Amino acid sequence: MRLNAIKPADGSKRPPLRVGRGKSAGQGKTCGRGHKGQRARKGGYHKVGFEGGQMPLQRRIPKSGFRSHLHRFVAELRLHELQAAAAHANGTVDVDALKRAGLVGHHIERVRVIRSGKLEAAVVVRGLELTKGARAAIEASGGRVEG
After folding, report:
1. Confidence of residue 1 (pLDDT cuts 50, 70, 90)
2. Residue 9 lies in a domain
3. Cα separation of 135 and 129, whole Å?
4. Half-sphere exposure of 28 (CA within 13 A, CB side)
5. Most buried among 8, 23, 54, 87, by the most CB within 10 A?
């Protein structure tokens, strides 16, 4: 096969319409635009979603929800995931240890630990945000919270 021999399959491409080339071409005089009106004019068409002056759908329906820009930089971690990170980091867990363990993304700046799952080993937590339940669970397992 050669690059100069490649061509589309027969019948897959239609020849372009030769508009404005007379009656015999099938697209003469008005060139398929009909008679008069906005759509017949050069540059005469409206934007997407235009409803003839009626309030467009995207403005009629109610808006809802909120997407925080901080969401990209804050991660949430469960207690049993914290224990997995402690195994990689000799018992001390901070944001860098979580990144090395692959539990949070490289762009994460803050980590919040929630009480979900079980924590069996003693873990030292440094520089993470904790819920009240998570703090109690860490201290109950013999661990401690620094900074």
Report:
1. confident
2. no
3. 9
4. 6
5. 87
